[in-house]
Amino acid sequence: MAVIDLDTVPVKTGSIYPAPYAEQMAGRSSLRLGQAGGLTQFGANLVILQPGARSSLRHWHENEDEFVMVTQGTCTLITDDGETDMTEGQCAAFPAGVANGHCFVNNTRTEARFLVVGSKAQHEIAYYSDIDMKVELADGSARFTRKDGSPLDQN
Predict the structure, then answer these.
(1) 114 exposed, middle or buried (CB, 10 Å; 0-12, 13-18, 19+)?
(2) Of 27, 55, 123, 131, which one is least surrounded by beta carbons within 10 A?
(3) 14, 3, 68, 128: CA torsion to nearest 10
(4) Over the stretch 15-46, which tens digit does the pLDDT of each residue have?
(5) By the 8 A CB rule, do 75 and 89 touch?
(6) CB-facing half-sphere around the CA of 85: CA atoms within 13 A
(7) Sheet strands (E) in the chain
(8) Angle at CA 43, nearest 5°, toward 17 and 105?
(9) What is the C-alpha to C-alpha distance for residues 64 and 94, in angstroms, rounded to an integer?
């Protein structure tokens, strides 16, 4: 399959984050374009942010590179260095192992979209910059813990 029909790609909503963080992703959805095209070596997702929505908690990856290109509207990139508005056609790159947490927020009144391409490491650990949490991804499952590996409080 070469051409991916966007109208047939399922829209993914929700989050794999544990409570109470999952609720913070309201208004975020994505199309798993790479998966729809049968790709296995890297992921390519079109992320859709409604007004006020955020892409994720601020995070960085140990083993996976990420590349982002805004395709519609304006997204505010938040990193350790501050906030930067990005518009259509602007790109950002996040090399693996660089501990500069990032996420995108739609601070506008219209829908915003960006394409994110990332490597698919067989074993990945990501850290969340603003909270005491990390995730370990392996064999198709996600395990969330504190950064030191101890269990999260489940209140």
Answers:
(1) buried
(2) 123
(3) 30
(4) 999 999 999 999 999 999 999 999 999 999 99
(5) no
(6) 8
(7) 11-13, 28-32, 42-49, 59-61, 66-72, 74-79, 82-87, 91-94, 103-105, 112-119, 123-128, 133-138, 141-145
(8) 50
(9) 9
Separation of alpha carbons 129 and 137, rounded Å: 17
Rg (CA), the chain: 15
Burial 56-93 (b: 16+ CB within 10 A, else e): bbbbbbbebbbbbbbebbbbbbbbeeeeeebeeeeebe
130 secondary structure, DSSP code: T
- pLDDT 10s digits, 91-117: 999 999 999 999 999 999 999 999 999
Q: What residue has token string 């067989």? A: 122
Q: Are 121 and 64 in contact (CB under 8 A)?
A: yes
How far is C-alpha 39 from the chain's CA centre?
18
Query: In 2-138, which ranges are continuous DSSP H helix?
Result: 33-36
Task: Please report which confidence band the pLDDT of residue 154 belongs to, taking 50, 70 and 90 as the band edges.
Answer: low
